[in-house]
Amino acid sequence: MADSLIKLHDLKKEFDGTPVLRGISLDIKSREFVTLLGPSGCGKTTTLRIIDGVMLEDRKVEFCDREFECVDSGFGHNTPVDVVIRPEDLHLVYAGDGLLQGVVESIVFKGVHYEMMVRTEHFTFTVHSTMAEPVGKTVGLTVIPFDIHIMHRSAEAQA
Fold first, then answer.
1. By the 8 A CB rule, do 56 and 40 touch?
2. What's the Cα-to-Cα distance from 109 to each of 42, 66, 124, 145, rounded to whole Å?
3. Region at 101 (left for phi over 0; alpha for psi -120 to 50; beta for the rest)
4. Beta-carbon contacts of residue 43 (< 8 Å; ≥ 6 apart)
5. Using one digit for the tens of pLDDT, what is the confidence trace for 69-83?
6. Which of 16, 46, 108, 128 is surrounded by the most beta carbons within 10 Å?
7. Among candidates 95, 97, 102, 98, which has minimal Cα distance to 116?
8. Range 106-119 burial, b when 16+ CB lie within 10 A, else e
9. Residue 92, domain extent
């Protein structure tokens, strides 16, 4: 049997006290194709935007080999955590001005915003923006501290 590539167990997340994920469990094996389906606002993107990180100290987290300020505290020094950044919370800026730098891999107009896939050195981010950048362009990505949310990593994810 193939090893798990992604394993989530009883994943829960709240934004401003409102639950957006309630007990999500996934076990995705190598070479499996999985699609998340559901209505707008049900947590599909939030589930997919979880990034491995380390809580360096209260309100400071490391992911993608960079340190970022965040809104959360009380996790303890050097605690492995999951970082959640929603696509609408990533902002496009000039390449040299971003906290992260990446290349636009795809762009689709979604009626009220553009959805772009931006590949950085460590991760591919989904970005929702009213600003469009062409495929192949190098852009900067920035996020304000209150848009970075931290969750305790489950014991299974730490193993």
1. no
2. 21, 30, 18, 27
3. beta
4. 13, 20, 21, 24
5. 888 888 888 888 888
6. 46
7. 102
8. ebeeeeebbebbbe
9. 86-142
- The C-alpha atoms of residue 28 and residue 35 are separated, in whole angstroms, by 11
Amino acid identity of residue 112, one-letter, is V
Domain membership of residue 124 (yes or no) is yes
Domain count, the chain: 1
In the chain, pLDDT over 90 holds for what percent of residues?
30
Compute, in degrees rounded to 10, the torsion defined by CA atoms 76, 145, 16, 119: -100
Confidence bin at 109 (pLDDT 50/70/90): very high
pLDDT at 136 over 50: yes
Residue 59 covered by a domain:
no
Mean pLDDT over residues 76-104, rounded?
Answer: 90
